[in-house]
Amino acid sequence: MVLETISKIIKVQLPAYLKKLPLPETIGGFTRLTVSEWLRLLPLLGILALLGYLTIRPFLPKKKKQRDCLINLKIQKENPKVVNEIDIEDLRSPNVCYCRCWRSKTFPVCDKSHIKHNELTGDNVGPLILKKKIL
Q: What pTM value is reported for the model?
């Protein structure tokens, strides 16, 4: 049943549709088409544009990979993760971690979003850790 329907469309309806299209004999003839004639051409032009795109798509430049989205381009790239510790005497809590990846949902406080970012991109960004100096 399905194949019979497809066969009928290809053998009967498609040739009849193509015969009724207002295709001019010259390129200049396209300028003389009326609005209704252009509307009748739209489905065919859309299919031709889609087929053209699908044909050239393999040759189009690829999207940039996640690795191209690094935040840290040059700081301590030899380390698996950049973490700096600074002793500060006046902190209220013993440790405070500040975000340096700009992805924390609790910015400026680190929520460890850099872990997922580092896995996706190969980056090595980490938090700034402030430690209360114990005397």
A: 0.42
